[in-house]
Design brief:
It is a single chain. The protein has 2 helices and 6 strands; from the N terminus they run ββββββαα. By secondary structure, the chain is α+β, with helices and mostly antiparallel strands. It has a single domain, classed as Jelly Rolls (Sandwich). A 3-stranded antiparallel β-sheet has the order 4-1-6. Strand 2 and strand 3 form a beta hairpin. The longest helix is centred in the last third of the chain and has 14 residues. The two termini are 21 Å apart.
């Protein structure tokens, strides 16, 4: 289960997802200011993708409890669930 949220400070990461037939497909390339890890944290869902650094990359890591504490100040749990479902529906 995911335990960390990561914000990309510098560099580039590749996000891939394994299809039912075993192929890895590119979901996104993310750069500074973007983040990964937010889908699984709110409801302790399994990882939905694999993230690989494509170059030297610096990340800011936040543990699950801190991430959820910050979220609680910004959104309702229903808002978080809705955002997670929307992001998952957009994945290939």
């Amino acid at each position: 289960m995911p335990e960390w949220f990561y914000n990309i400070v510098s560099g580039q990461v590749l996000v891939t997802r394994r299809t039912e037939d075993g192929r890895d497909v590119e979901v996104a390339r993310l750069t500074a200011g973007q983040s990964v890890g937010e889908i699984g944290l709110p409801e302790k869902m399994p990882r939905t993708a694999t993230v690989t650094a494509m170059e030297e990359t610096q990340l800011l890591a936040m543990d699950r409890s801190t991430f959820l504490e910050l979220l609680s100040d910004a959104a309702t749990p229903a808002d978080v669930r809705q955002e997670v479902r929307a992001r998952m529906a957009a994945l290939p």
